[in-house]
C-alpha cells in the first residue's frame, strides 16, 4: 500500500444515539408522529375504561330506577368531562384508524400528504368532540 493511502485522514462519522426521556422536550416530532402517538394513547384509554363503561351500561339497563340513578350521575361536571374524554378518544381513534387504513392502500405516504392527513385527523376529531361537548353541556 502506498503512503498516501495509509495517511489519508479519516472522516469523523456522526454519532447516532437513541433519544433519552430527558431529551424528549428538545426533539420536534412531525405532526404524523403526534397523531400516531395520540392514536395509541386513545386506544389504550378506551381499552382500560371499557370494563367501567360496560359496568355502567349493565347497571343502567337493570331497571328504571337504576337508569334514573345513572341519568342523575351523568349530570355531574366531572362525569361529563370523563365522557367528553372518552368521546374524543373514540373519535380520534376512529379518524386515525381510517387514515391508517388508507395508508395501507399506499395512498398518501409522501411527506406532504401525510402531514395533510394528520392535520385533517386532528381537526375532524376536535371539531366532532367540540360538537359533543356543546351537546353534553346543554348549549343545544
Write a short abstract of this structure.
Heme binds at residue 93. With 140 residues, the chain is an all-alpha fold.
Characterise the protein shown here:
The chain has 140 residues and is mainly alpha-helical. It has a single domain, classed as 3 helical TM bundles of succinate and fumarate reductases (Up-down Bundle). The protein is built from five helices and no strands. The longest helix is centred in the first third of the chain and has 30 residues. The model has no long low-confidence stretch (mean pLDDT 89).
Sequence stretches where pLDDT stays below 50 over 5 or more residues: none
**How many structural domains in the coordinates?**
1
Describe the biggest sheet? none
- In the CATH hierarchy, the third-tier topology is known as 3 helical TM bundles of succinate and fumarate reductases
Overall form: elongated
Instruction: Supply the CATH class.
Output: Mainly Alpha
CATH architecture: Up-down Bundle
Instruction: Please count the beta strands (DSSP E, at least 2 residues each).
Output: 0
Number of helices: 5
Beta fraction? under 5%
Superfamily (CATH H level) name: Fumarate reductase/succinate dehydrogenase, transmembrane subunit
Q: Provide mean pLDDT, rounded.
A: 89
| SSE string, helices as H and strands as E | HHHHH
Structural category is mainly alpha
- Radius of gyration, in Å, reads 24 Å
Helical residue percent?
A: over 70%
Distance between the termini: 84 Å
Assembly state: single chain
Amino acid at each position: 500500500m502506498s503512503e498516501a493511502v495509509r495517511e489519508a485522514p479519516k472522516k469523523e462519522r456522526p454519532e447516532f444515539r437513541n433519544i433519552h426521556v430527558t431529551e424528549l422536550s428538545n426533539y420536534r416530532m412531525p405532526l404524523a408522529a403526534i397523531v400516531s402517538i395520540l392514536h395509541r394513547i386513545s386506544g389504550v384509554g378506551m381499552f382500560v375504561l371499557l370494563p367501567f363503561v360496560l359496568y355502567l351500561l349493565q347497571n343502567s339497563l337493570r331497571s328504571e330506577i337504576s337508569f334514573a340513578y345513572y341519568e342523575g350521575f351523568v349530570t355531574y361536571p366531572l362525569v361529563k368531562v370523563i365522557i367528553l374524554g372518552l368521546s374524543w378518544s373514540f373519535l380520534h381513534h376512529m379518524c386515525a384508524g381510517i387514515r391508517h387504513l388508507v395508508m395501507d392502500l399506499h395512498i398518501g405516504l409522501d411527506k406532504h400528504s401525510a402531514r395533510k392527513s394528520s392535520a385533517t385527523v386532528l381537526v375532524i376529531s376536535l371539531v366532532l368532540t367540540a360538537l359533543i361537548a356543546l351537546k353534553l353541556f346543554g348549549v343545544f
